[in-house]
Amino acid sequence: MDSKRKELGEFLQAMRQRGSPEAFGFPNGVRRRTQGLRREEVAQLAGISATWYTWIEQGREVNVSTDALARLANALKLSKSERSYLFDMTDRRDPQAHLSEADTAPETLVAMLESIHIPAYIMGRTWDILAWNAAATALFGDWLINAPAETRPNLLRFVFQQPNAKQFVVNWEMRARRLVAEFRADCRTRLEEPELKKIVAELTAASPEFEIYWKQHDVLERQGGQREFTHPSRGLVHYQQVTLRPVEQEQLKLVLLQPVN
User: Fold this and answer.
1) How many other C-beta atoms can be found within 10 angstroms of the C-beta atom of residue 59?
2) Looking at residue 21, what DSSP letter applies?
3) What is the rounded distance in angstroms from the CA atom of residue 86 to the CA atom of residue 72?
4) More exposed terminus of the chain, fewer Cβ within 10 Å: N or C?
């Protein structure tokens, strides 16, 4: 038996047995010999065949669709972590994952930014800049503080639409090409989300370079490393970039720029 299928079956069995039948709308009769829900009851709640569900719990070689997993997660009232675990075990993407991931930075993380004395900012799902500190303002200036009222500052909009970006970012073409490849990799499981499609369409229409790079389908994981900028008053400045992800909101990124002398 495949270890993942065995683990999936055992996980579903544990989730099924932990709750009281009444919490799921079933009577807890004296003849009930099964702890928690019966297999037939889970199948009924999920709208799937009882035999097929039994096979899943037994670890048999059956193909469990994304839709079936979503219905099982809802039927068993799984928490966010449990639901993620269920989909990860089957190597499938939860179609509702983005619905629980608000694109806002936690207040505690925002408060920490001002205690960081190097440029630091928080990026969201489509690389909007959700919060930043004074050192980031001093480095990036107008890009952060003069964004249009209807939008938030966005790293991709800055690189591909800001008039002075090509002068500000050293080795702009190389950095811009890599940035698009990193963005595609970061969003690879969310390409059909409306907000992502919206910003890709906007950038494609506004920037011939973005359109070319996006159509090349290059994929690179986001990495740190040296970053150089030509600051209007300070001249050439060098930084070492590090990107961190908060455990509780992995769709966010905390970007730190350590000055290099």
Assistant:
1) 17
2) G
3) 9
4) C
